[in-house]
Amino acid sequence: GLLNPELAHRFDDFTEKNSAYTLSPATIAVNLDKDFEPLHPKQLRRVVLGPFYSAGITDNNSTVTEVLAKVRKPENAWLLTWTIQEVYSKAEKPGRKGLFSSEKTTQEFFINTDDLEAARQGVSSYENHALIPHEAYQALYAAGEAQKIFAGYKVHILSNGQVISDV
Known about the structure:
two-stranded antiparallel sheet, elongated
């Protein structure tokens, strides 16, 4: 919730109604702008966790499942992916007050229509990430599958309790 007590309960209600994955970040941002007169959101970011792949548990991707099954230690036979979605305001449409009608100030949000996946997600930009233990990454790399599986992902490798990024 929010620290402002005047908005806190309304915001909690808003998050309940607007937290479904089926709503695009652009829809959530427009609803936030519309429902809260004093707030004018310039940016909205959402983190979508998953899928989580694990040898013997999930069967989402046969290639990943086959390679993870070859990892020696079962506790290292997993892969977690997540997506960071972002939508931002490209302009602010000023409000107007007239004698018979008025319009409040609203944001115009940018949707990147040059990127088909960004347009499908309803976002300005997005980033795909993957976290994988070192042993599992080595197995995927040795099988010649790492580049194909991680195409379009920022890869983070967990090795000896440390995370190595941008591999």
